[in-house]
Amino acid sequence: MARKQAAASEVSDSVAAHVEVRQIDALIPYARNARTHDEAQVSQLAASILEWGFTNPILADATGIVAGHGRVMAARRLYDQGKTIKLPNGRELPAGTVPVIDVSGWSEAKRRAYILADNRLALNAGWDFDMLAVELDELRDIDVDLAGLGFDQQELNDLIGTPNIPPAEGAERPEDFKEYGENIETQYCCPSCGYKWSGKANAGGDEEPIGESEE
Which pLDDT band holds residue 18 (cuts at 50, 70, 90)? Predict the structure, then answer.
């Protein structure tokens, strides 16, 4: 047991030695990076860092960033806003710095190939949509802000529907359109099973099914 603990400690020390803290201004973006990050995504990354800490170190060598361009952009934005960035354990990073794993041992070919692989491999994963819907629904029930998870509102509506929230005071209701003699076409989604259908709710409140289920 003592031998295993000593071996584990040695490996831990070795891993820690590869992670360092660097000034963000010293990290040069890769000029031929094919991955793009728009303003909305950088904002999402910045919000994620504030919520959970800097969970994923940047990969870099002497020439600059290998992986983590978006996280560097998000961290820079947070520092420009006077924010403090923490590690997941709550420890604050020195101002203007991010954790970095040094990959200087890679050849140029290996570094360039990894830049593409790091971005592409994650896109090849899929979703268990039934399980995803369960997780999202339960997180919503315990008041987790789902907007911070990276899904847009339409995706959330498709997966778990909209919460049953009474209309705000003064909000227009279908009966408000009675004078126009129009039925109101509505999309429905069962929040439990995800079954979707369309219908027209007329001024009398009856539903007239139209079209077919999307299932």
Answer: confident
